[in-house]
């Protein structure tokens, strides 16, 4: 019996065939396919005629095996055989059929007698086709060894078969790396995959299952296979250690399949068992590692079981994979367990804490060498590596035994058992002993090897757990003994340490609190200083602007102007007060401010302080009252300078934060003690905006402001109330405040006074009442210029000044009113309302304003289609680079910082007006041209584009151009704006009235229509003229030629 290959390149131990007796022959089948088992059936030749024997020779052999025949019959039979042999030798090369008389139970591989014709042949399956000149081929070879088929991509294989009289029913089992169609005697039996002459349409398919093969006994058959190679498969991957056999055609007797199927079921059970055990062990060791991270052996063991599980899953998936692309992935997955022995060695290295020397790295490197694909001639190189890792494991166990390490004997037994099982299995395998061919014995060896290492680890873990428990018990006993002996000492030490810890904790807590307080104070001080500097900068720059600009103008014009000089004096005095307040705070902080007493009438003094603010209160529409409640009319000793600063700051704040129509009341009442007046109770009540309860504790802090945003309604530095509080404290008085948002604020002060004695040598009241300093509102000298002024029939450009400082706003109006139609607004909200109704050409705006700041106003202007053409100049005390960038990002056209030069402001405004006029002239010039001329102009000046508002108007006119009724009112309704706004918008953009724009647009379209071939009547109707004659008059008035002349000029000069 000839020896053939023992295993096929598929699953290692799973043998499963699927067979359904009800399958019909000669019908294309595509049933559930399961791969071939591990045991490859040998192409035995016992009882089978070889392909080189003819059919007649086969018959002759059968006759010899029968009972003796008469002599004359044997002579005739021999003569016939001789004549046949002579005919065959003289004829053309004939195709020698494969003779099948019987098939062994372990299968027969159709390997010889095949002929190949590359390329597609429509008659390839026909029994009449002459295939004697076809190329002899062994289709079981790796497809990479068949260049004829690879180059053609498609071809035909044919095999002539002669069956004997006793041939049993057969099944075929096909393994292939191509797509195929199977024909028997010209009839299609099966199609596996998709065969096509187009390589892109080929789909390779490996059935790996059993199918019926309907051969009739004692007859000749032609088996034809139409095969095709699928591109992009692994045909050209010569580096793969992968069996890419083209076609392996196996024959089996039908009756052997039921005997093999139970083994396949058990194989599946065993595979499932192994996968489950590997997964459980992976979870177990991974959990142990996360519980005890110092024991890395559990991590290595978890990795080992993970790779083993992946390899087992890949082999298990091999039974259900038919696509060649997926099978190569399964092949790689099944190769991953090559690293398992390395992880076994690594696990024991970690378990015994061995140093990783050169033998360890040699073992790890040998695994990499084993993964290198080797041809069949060099497969022997991997055999020593297979034994190197078990031998290394034995060496480790012997070293551990020598060192008397815990669990070393168990590991040594495991290593020797594993190696012994491996050697015994290999001997049985290579000697081909009959007993080893039994599946149960094979699986028994494998299962024993598989469970050997997990059982060893489990025993080691149990021993480790027992040892640890024993060590813990011993340690607990030692601890109990030591604790009993040293209990008194420990208690004493703990008490001492506790006392020391408490002291340290108290010290640390105190120091920490001090550090936190200091840090908070420093942080608050830094914030206060930053806020103060910002506020002070704003407070200084506005008066400086109102001082420098008028003075520069007066110097330039060399004239005297009382209004401007009053404005300069007022703002210079305002700066002086701010500076004096800062100096007073510095003196108070350094304790350098003395108390300067004098004698005088307290009530008279307070009344004069209130009178200072009477005019400003009337201008703002506030009722200012002064009341005296039983205060004696006599002289008392008090510090008039400090009283003046206190009262002026309080009354000024009350008027500042009280809106028009409110009331401010100052009431004085005596404070008696032992029959003498020792102080004055000052009560200041206003009906202003009030303060929230959480803000009241901070109102007397230096530089604190209730509203620190850029949209606050009132300016200030946060100095006044802080100065009042410290002055009251310097005089020995008290101050408190009560307030409610929306209701008002009340200040209660108690200022001490002394009665004048005969021995007192103090100066009498010599104070002078200062001029009014708060709330002075200048009447605009240019109020008459706020109405529209026309010059030479052309409206002046309009300008809007948005500034919360009334004096600066009045000054700017006065400087710009002569050149522009000037509007003014006290904040951004009022400015936006004026912009929507008046549509000014230029907007000059401050940044820090109540209700709406300059940034938000600029964003609204540039985001609105009706106002985005308006130029915006930001004029503010914020000089930081970030503030400039934010303004420009919102769309501001220019930015000036206070204090500023009026000449520079006028020049910048004039430049913006000039730019708007030039842009309007460009739009008007482009509008007057035809479409072709306008396009040519855009090519010359590509950076200029039409305004979106004008494009919108042109679109509306295009839609209703033939409607003669459309006019200015219709256009205003379509754009959702009134006539005045529409007029100002269009006038600012294109310097035309809306009516002129509609009329000129009709005429421009009319010129285009005339130029494109329309006559005068058609054109007049299309552009909305009811009468051609009227159209002719209007057209001639605009183009200086009649429509007919225009058409003629276009024909003459196209």
UniProtKB/TrEMBL annotation:
Q: Which GO terms describe its molecular function?
A: ATP binding; DNA-binding transcription factor activity; phosphorelay sensor kinase activity; sequence-specific DNA binding
Q: Supply the source organism for this entry.
A: Spirosoma foliorum
Chain segments annotated as coiled-coil in the UniProt record: 487-521
Write the Enzyme Commission number(s) for this entry.
2.7.13.3
Q: What is this protein called?
A: histidine kinase
Domain called Response regulatory: residue spans: 798-913
Going by the UniProt record, its keywords in alphabetical order are: ATP-binding, Cell membrane, Coiled coil, DNA-binding, Kinase, Membrane, Nucleotide-binding, Phosphoprotein, Transcription, Transcription regulation, Transferase, Transmembrane, Transmembrane helix, Two-component regulatory system
Q: Where in the cell is it found?
A: Cell membrane
Give me the segments passing through the membrane. Answer: 268-290, 297-317, 329-351, 358-374, 410-433, 445-463
Q: What SUPFAM superfamilies does the record tag this protein with?
A: ATPase domain of HSP90 chaperone/DNA topoisomerase II/histidine kinase, CheY-like, Homeodomain-like, Homodimeric domain of signal transducing histidine kinase
Task: Please give the Pfam families that the UniProt record associates with this protein.
Answer: HATPase_c, HisKA, HTH_18, Response_reg
Which reactions are catalysed by this chain? ATP + protein L-histidine = ADP + protein N-phospho-L-histidine
Domain Histidine kinase stretches: 535-755
Report the enzyme's class at the first EC level. Answer: transferase
**Presence of the UniProt keyword tRNA-binding in the record:** no
Q: Which residues carry this modification: 4-aspartylphosphate?
A: 846
What broad taxonomic lineage does this protein's source fall under? Bacteria, Pseudomonadati, Bacteroidota, Cytophagia, Cytophagales
Naming one, the record's GO cellular component terms include:
plasma membrane
**Keyword Glycosyltransferase recorded:** no
Domain HTH araC/xylS-type intervals: 951-1049
